[in-house]
Amino acid sequence: MTLRHVLALGLALALTSGFAWGADPAKPAKKDNNRATTSKSAEDSNISMAHRASKLIGLKVHNNEKEDLGKIEDLVIDMRDGHVRYAVLSFGGFLGLGDKLFAIPMNSLKFNHDDKHFVLNVNKERLENANGFNKDNWPDFADPTFLKSVDDYYRADAGASQSHEGLVVSAKDGALTMTDVNGSNKHTHNIAKDVNIQLNGKAATLNDLHQGDFVTVTVNDRDGKDFVAAVHAESKKIQR
């Protein structure tokens, strides 16, 4: 996957978003103040979550113990929706993994904005047993069997956790109401008292979150039921 795919996707999105198909040029569209406010909030939040691929490739990857695991070698993009699905990592000599490359689902990685590196929350044993590949012999990322094997492997280690990002609508009384990053799909999570909540990289409470803050919610599966395991938020005042 090369940056040409990124550029091509960006051009396509720019072209499709630059025209209002079916609009009557003689009748100016009615201004929707609520929608404008939502769009502005979404635009502000994207400042911190949108990065050039060339700036991400080469960044270091640490584990939760702050050990240097390796670095990002490449990114794999799903051309159906433009999302980055996998990061390709090299671990160097860590754990004797040699010069192999490893495909890691992006939802297994967290970006540290302060120190500009990724954090991979996977234990050492899991990494040692992971299937890597030679830099001159890449797997077929269009093969659904291969992708499922990668997803299942790292999902098992994370306890079937899934993360999604969005904007805070309200946070109070044990409930976090949020939208997705473009201001749609409003929904509410119940937040238990023992949930790990961080704001700008520091421990926080639910009441510390404010409308418009960018938030990542991690949901785990326990005995067939979903529950919120962590909430990581970034204040809209420091988004960049």
Please characterize this protein's 3D structure.
It is a single chain. By secondary structure, the protein is α+β, with helices and mostly antiparallel strands. The chain folds into two domains: 57-157, Roll (SH3 type barrels), CATH 2.30.30.240; 162-234, Nucleic acid-binding proteins (OB fold (Dihydrolipoamide Acetyltransferase, E2P)). It contains five helices and 13 strands. A seven-stranded mixed beta sheet has the order 9-8-7-12-13-10-11, covered by helices on one side. The longest helix has 17 residues, at 33-49. The protein is globular. The model is unreliable at 1-29 and 31-48 (pLDDT under 50).
Q: In short, what is this structure?
A:
This protein has five helices and 13 strands. With 240 residues, it is an alpha+beta fold.
Give the key terms:
OB fold (Dihydrolipoamide Acetyltransferase, E2P); 240 residues; 33% strand; 23% helix; 2 domains; SH3 type barrels; alpha+beta; 5 helices
